[in-house]
């Protein structure tokens, strides 16, 4: 295995949640960290996410194991006071509100239980007792107990503040400086060269060009809505709710046909008294705009599930682009055939949940210490680079 000596300095390319978390864990060990960011912290997916820190939508396998490790790192950071008021532990309720969704949710409960996740199957009476505001159409629900919620940009702010690492804003990485095959000495930017003993690429959709992995990453647009405050209704919801169709849109469970635009409803009661409602999962990169068809459909679905939302005003709609990997698993680890470049990207709709844990894992790899998770399923070397941008 390639081994790097303890790095004196590390450049992190991209300041989303993964870059900020990597900076936090490296700086905590005395490494001199520079983050370069082509826009500003949380400017891309991290600033446009819902924020479910959740195992509820995962199927058993490496992503479920990663999500459980991700939740555990959130709990540690909460206990240390770093994510106080930013990470809110709360359950997720996966609901079946049509005959088609009943077997989907039941199969999912079986899958979660087989992986040791704490989950309760609630029949019609129990779920309506728990959520009086739900439509009578809801037939059953699965309560996934140990989930939570975090606002991505707030996590980034806390991690940067706690680490003291400064971000060099509006500096775009153009290429890696390759000094000899398999080794880099820094990054070429529009502002000139920056040198360091190791480089971490956490540049979301900008990562593949730097790594010569064209065609491996793909965009998945998502549209979300935020309502005004409705404290009474909000207080009557003990956790977030997720439609059985969301599992279909994520490919977690088979059954029915996922809709073309990947509609799958999630309603999150925020600590502000507002509701965050999503969303779509579209196979395109069509900017940060919303369209009326999607907004109207998400609202219709939300009101069908929680009829009292019809009295709550919509404040704003926004959209972001998730970065997915062709085989559905993120890239986390040493860059193929370069001893001192590391990559962590391709988290699609799970990067808020996984981000802090991935930052910890990447820092461990760089420091040559045991990672908080077996990363072998995520090894970037499963894709061969065409040509490194150098
Ligand atoms: C609508 C929507 C809903 C979501 N909901 C959830 C959810 O409920 N739960 C969950 O866990 N996840 C969710 N996600 C996914 C989550 O937001 C992402 O997986 C996560 O934010 C990815 O973080 P990142 O740090 O890898 O990338 P990003 O946040 O995309 O950050 C990458 C950064 O790199 C910078 N950059 C790119 N190229 C360069 C370059 N060449 N030089 C310098 N800087 C560069 C970009 O400007 C950007 O700031 C959602 C995403 C969307 C869009």
Describe this structure in words.
Residues 10-365 form the FAD dependent oxidoreductase domain. The chain is an alpha+beta fold and 390 residues long. It has two domains: 9-46 and 153-216 and 327-382, FAD/NAD(P)-binding domain; 92-145 and 218-324, 2-Layer Sandwich (D-Amino Acid Oxidase, Chain A, domain 2). The protein has ten helices and 20 strands. It has helices at residues 17-27, 62-79, 101-114, 124-130, 152-163, 207-211, 231-235, 244-250, 292-305, 351-367; strands at 9-13, 32-37, 52-53, 87-89, 92-96, 119-122, 140-144, 148-150, 167-169, 173-180, 183-189, 192-195, 198-201, 217-227, 240-243, 266-269, 275-278, 314-325, 331-334, 341-345. The strands form four sheets. Strands 6-7-5-15-16-17-14-18 form an eight-stranded mixed sheet, with helices on both faces. The protein has a six-stranded mixed sheet with strand order 9-2-1-13-20-19, covered by helices on one side. The chain has a three-stranded antiparallel sheet with strand order 3-8-4. A hairpin with a 2-residue loop joins strand 11 and strand 12. Helix 1 (17-27) runs parallel beside helix 5 and helix 3 packs across helix 8. It is elongated, with a radius of gyration of 21 Å. The chain binds flavin-adenine dinucleotide. The site of flavin-adenine dinucleotide has 42 residues, from helix 1, strand 2, strand 14, strand 18 and helix 10.
Brief write-up:
The chain is of the alpha+beta class. 28% of the residues lie in helices and 26% in strands. The protein is built from ten helices and 20 strands.
């Amino acid at each position: 295995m390639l081994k790097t000596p303890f790095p004196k300095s590390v450049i992190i390319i991209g300041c989303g949640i993964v870059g900020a978390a990597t900076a936090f864990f490296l700086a905590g060990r005395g490494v001199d960290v520079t983050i370069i960011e082509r826009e500003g912290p949380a400017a891309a997916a991290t600033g446009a996410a819902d924020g479910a820190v959740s195992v509820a939508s995962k199927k058993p396998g490496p992503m479920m194991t990663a999500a459980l490790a991700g939740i555990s790192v959130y709990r540690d950071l909460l206990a240390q006071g770093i994510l106080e008021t930013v990470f809110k532990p709360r359950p997720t309720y996966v609901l079946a509100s049509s005959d088609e969704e009943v077997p989907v949710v039941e199969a999912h409960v079986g899958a979660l239980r087989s992986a040791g996740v704490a989950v309760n199957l609630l029949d019609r009476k129990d779920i309506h007792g728990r959520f009086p505001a739900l439509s009578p159409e809801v037939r059953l629900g699965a309560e996934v107990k140990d989930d939570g919620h975090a606002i991505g940009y707030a996590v980034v702010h806390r991690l940067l503040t706690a680490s003291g690492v400064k971000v060099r804003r509006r500096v775009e990485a153009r290429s890696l400086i390759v000094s000899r095959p398999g080794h880099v000495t820094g990054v070429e930017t529009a502002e000139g060269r920056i040198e360091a003993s190791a480089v971490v690429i956490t540049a979301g959709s900008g990562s593949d060009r730097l790594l010569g992995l064209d065609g491996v990453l793909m965009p998945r647009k998502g549209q979300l809505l935020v309502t005004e405050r409705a404290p009474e209704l909000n207080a009557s919801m003990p956790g977030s709710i997720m439609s059985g169709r969301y599992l279909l849109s994520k490919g977690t469970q088979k059954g029915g046909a996922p809709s073309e635009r990947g509609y799958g409803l999630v309603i999150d009661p925020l600590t502000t008294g507002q509701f965050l409602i999503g969303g779509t999962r579209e196979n395109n990169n069509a900017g940060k705009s919303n369209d009326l068809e999607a907004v109207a459909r998400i609202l219709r679905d939300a009101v069908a599930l929680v009829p009292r939302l019809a009295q709550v005003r919509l404040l704003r709609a926004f959209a972001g682009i998730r970065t997915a990997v062709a085989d559905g698993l993120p890239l986390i680890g040493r860059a193929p055939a370069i001893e001192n470049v590391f990559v962590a990207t391709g988290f699609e709709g799970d990067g808020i949940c996984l981000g802090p844990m991935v930052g910890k894992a990447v820092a461990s790899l760089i420091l040559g210490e045991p990672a908080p998770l077996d990363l072998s399923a995520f090894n970037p070397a499963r894709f061969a680079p065409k040509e490194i941008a150098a």
